[in-house]
Amino acid sequence: MKLTGAQALIKSLEMEGVEVMFGLPGGAILPVYDPIIDSSIRHILVRHEQGAGHMAEGYAHVTGRPGVAMVTSGPAATNIVTPLCDAYMDSIPMVVITGQVPYSSIGSDAFQECDTTGITMSVTKHNWLVTKAQDIPEVVKEAFHIATTGRPGPVLIDVPKDVSNQMMDWYWPDTVDLPGYKPTSKGHPRMIKEAARLILASRRPVIYAGGGILKARAADALRELAELTGIHVVTTLMARGAFPDDHRLCLGMPGMHGNYTAVTAMQRADLLIALGSRFDDRVTGKVDGFAPEAKIIHVDVDPAELGKVRRPDVPVVGDCRLVIEELVIAVRDLLAGGTEVPDRSPWNATVNGWRAKYPLAYEPAAEGDALKPQMVLEHLRDSTPDDTILVSGVGQHQMWASQYWRFNHPYTWVNSGGLGTMGFSVPAAIGAKVGRPDRMVWAVDGDGCFQMTAQELVTASAERIPVKVAILNNAYLGMVRQWQEMFYDERYSEVYLSPDLPDYVKWAEAMGCVGLRAETPEDIQPVIDKANDIDDRPVVIDFRTDSREKVYPMVPAGQANDAIVVPPFQEGRHGEGGH
Amino acid sequence: MPHPAAPEKHHILSVLVENKAGVLARVASLFARRGFNIFSLAVAPTDDERFSRITIVVDVEDKTIEQMTKQLFKLINVVKIDELDPTDSVERELLLCTVRADPSVRSQVVEMVQIFEGRILAVGHDVLTVSMEGNPTKVDDFEELLRPYGIVELQRTGRVALRKLQRRPRPQALQAS
User: Fold this and answer.
1) Which end of chain A is more exposed for a tag (fewer CB within 10 A), N or C?
2) Most distant pair of Cα atoms in chain B: their distance
3) Which residues make Cβ contacts (< 8 Å) with residue B139, sequence separation at least 6?
4) Does B77 touch chain A (CB under 8 A)?
């Protein structure tokens, strides 16, 4: 069968099971947009290429399937660099297709030419510049294989216009031939035995669960391990929902804005069981002062993560699910063989003491004050189904969302962790809703973030994707304001945004959404109820929140986690935790 | 003038890569973005046309070399990496040099080239272009000894290396005795 390169490309995507793609056409990708008309693949037309990338990420986050985005050359390709980098940092499987000027023109500074594969080399797991139409099926097959196996990540295929127009003989490869790519999935049995021994010998163990748990579909295995051993679990920002927040062993989020118990339990632990986590600086604080007495078991599918930041005592390279399942068996074997476990009740009592003394808390708003953002989140949390998907941007609202939501199911939390991409939430929420139309999807956004990518709500309205957006509008770039208040003597430099400019309600309406506003505590519940009842279009709520509110606890940047700062009204309790 | 010799604590990475477009850029870009310094780099095809070998000399601590190797191995086109211990490998480098050699010192320069088993490639009125191949330390020595005569131009290839052949008795033989 003779096909054009463009037809072969779309057919290859169909062969890979792609159901939806996000994109925006332009000159160099024109040939590929023609066969889309006859394809089973749903194409969602975005308003900005960055939106296409974040939508693909949101889709991948909640479905586990690779997100697909397609854009043209030059500025379109550069616009999608941010989502590529975001997906690279957070290990999101994503396949991006870019148009390129004709192969014969490459290097001539042609109109809308840019060195896309050069620019994206460092933000993709791999990329390809296709030089012959005949190679397209093979490249697409490799691209999906690389994006979804081992440590997942984004890949990019750059397709010159003349290659799209070239004729080729259709084929579909059965396998990929990648001599340099063989990810390890099964952990080393000796290391797993050693890990099991260390786990049972420890007195103050903590499981440090990262995003790798979700990537490996290992939430059930993690729960089994935690319950079998009775070990507490912290879930990093990328792992929220990987272990249920309402589980008695769940300590919640660690790190710079983690809760006191999660942070301190890690600090005092004699064993950290790091599962699919990468000792990110936002978790460890100053590395030299991080969990000084802890031995480390580190399980990761990416060997480069083992020893990158902290040298593990027991390194295990492998897929988290497979390794944890083996670990459970190894622990059971040791227990059956009569291995004694030390008395951990003093440690458990200490942990419970911290929980009682330092719960996440905020001071309620005084009469007439603006809304407390935490209160808005509590209302939203309590008014939505347990399996609601929550998507956030980056900043204070992200931290409050992670802190105050209850994540009881995996794949219900979507955010930009590693790169910290402001503007992530609106497009990512749209992608999430496309992936899981059966779920309620709420984006919690800041006013600064919202202004970066809000135009994608036009996409959502046009495509009837009923996402809901809660803007915590404090009229500031809040997290920057918090740092200026705490570390720059309250000298506020270029952080004020105004609560009324733009008018978020009118803006929402102009984009085909329902726009709502809440200014007083009495407004909160009615607007949330109203938003929850709307299912035929997107909704945006402008919550007017208190700009003075800060995210606590906080470990100041560059300090050890022992320097954790609790909210002022909890300060008197400091030091009573004991252990 | 900085001494051209490799520092004491250098590591040699012999990296087998797929012979595909852009693979050198991928390797170089990785070193740049992870903050690793390359001391020298040599690329050439191998006996198998699907693969090339990149020999990279870096000057780093052991911990960094481990991370460097792991990151390098994540590149899809990187097939195999051997870290060669300088004491356990055969290294060679080629030097080309145009050196001043007016008639008053020409015989001394020629003698030097002979001692180092080099060759004279071109002869000018008062310059010579010479080549010399050997292990990098020897090449360093040669360069240092030529320097006083006045170097007009100099180019070294960067080293290539292979693992030294094992000549000790095999482990089984040891156990048997």
Assistant:
1) N
2) 66
3) B93, B94, B95, B132, B133, B156
4) yes
The whole-angstrom distance between B75's CA and the closest CA on chain A is 7
Residue B53, helix vs strand vs coil: strand
Which residues of chain A neighbour B77 with C-beta distances below 8 Å? 180
**Cα(A544)–Cα(A370) distance, integer angstroms:** 6
ipTM score of complex: 0.89
Quick check: A121 and B25 CB within 8 A?
yes
Token pair for A395: 């900043």
Distance from the A284 Cα atom to the nearest Cα atom in chain B, whole angstroms: 19
Residue A574, domain member (yes or no):
no
Q: pLDDT tens, B95-136?
A: 999 999 999 999 999 999 999 999 999 999 999 999 999 999
Contacts of B50 in chain A (CB under 8 A): 179
Say yes or no to pLDDT of A575 above 90.
Answer: no
Domain-embedded: residue A182? no
Q: Where in the sequence is the domain holding A251, given as residue range(s)?
A: 189-357
CB A227 within 8 Å of CB A326: no
Residues A237 and A299 in one domain: yes
Q: Which of B137, B149, B152 is nearest to B111 (CA)?
A: B149
Cα separation of the two ends of chain B: 55
Look at chain A and report how many structural domains it folds into: 3
The residue type at A191: M
- Rounded to the nearest angstrom, the gap between the alpha carbon of residue A381 and the centroid of all alpha carbons in its chain is 19
Identify whether A479 is a catalytic site residue.
yes
**Domain CATH for A315:** 3.40.50.1220
For each of the domains in chain B, give its residue range(s) and CATH number, in order of start: 11-84 (3.30.70.260), 90-162 (3.30.70.1150)
Chain A's closest residue to B81, CA to CA, is A180
d(CA A495, CA A270): 42
Closest CB to B26 among A121, A179, A308: A121
DSSP 3-state of A345: helix
Q: Across the interface, do B67 and A308 touch by the CB < 8 Å criterion? A: yes
CA pair distance A544, A68, nearest whole angstrom: 36
Q: What string of DSSP letters covers A447-498?
A: HHHHHHHTTHHHHHHHTT---EEEEEE-SB-HHHHHHHHHHSTT---S-B--
Give the Cα separation of A402 and A417 in Å (integer).
11
Within a domain: A366: no
Asked if residue A288 is part of any domain, the answer here is yes
